[in-house]
Amino acid sequence: MTTRGKKFREAAKLVDRASAYEPATAIEIAKKATFARFDETVELHMRMGVDPRSADQQVRGIALLPNGLGKQVRILVFAQGEAARIATEAGADHVGGDELVKKVEEGWLDFDVSISTPDMMGKVGKLGKILGRKGLMPNPKSGTVVTGEDLPRAIADARKGRVEFRLDRTAIIHVPIGKISFEQTKLLENLTALVDAVIKAKPSGAKGQYVKSAFLTTTMGPSIRLDLKSMLAQSVGS
Question: What span, in angstroms and rounded, lies between the C-alpha atoms of 77 and 116?
Answer without folding.
Answer: 6
